[in-house]
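Continuing the series of single-chain predictions for the mutant panel. This is the parent chain; the variants come on the following pages.
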Amino acid sequence: MDVTHLSLASSAASRPARIPTGPGLRDLALRWLRPDAGAPLRVVRRGRLAESRRRYVEIETMSGGRRIALFFFVSAVRPGGWSVVPDAAP
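Parent structure:
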């Protein structure tokens, strides 16, 4: 089989689908940061929390003429979801 002709559909079928149960990261960032018209959202930092190994990203933009940023955390409660507060450790 020629690798150049593989489709995304065939490669995605081999791994389980994650079904988001909440708003996506971009939707949350737009809701919480409320960027100025035309201001881009930018991922400043990403990593994992030391104690729980949960993923996070820091996103910044311009709002009201000022640079603002927030951390967003992958939710353990809602698979595929994000939140602005990390889930409590089990």
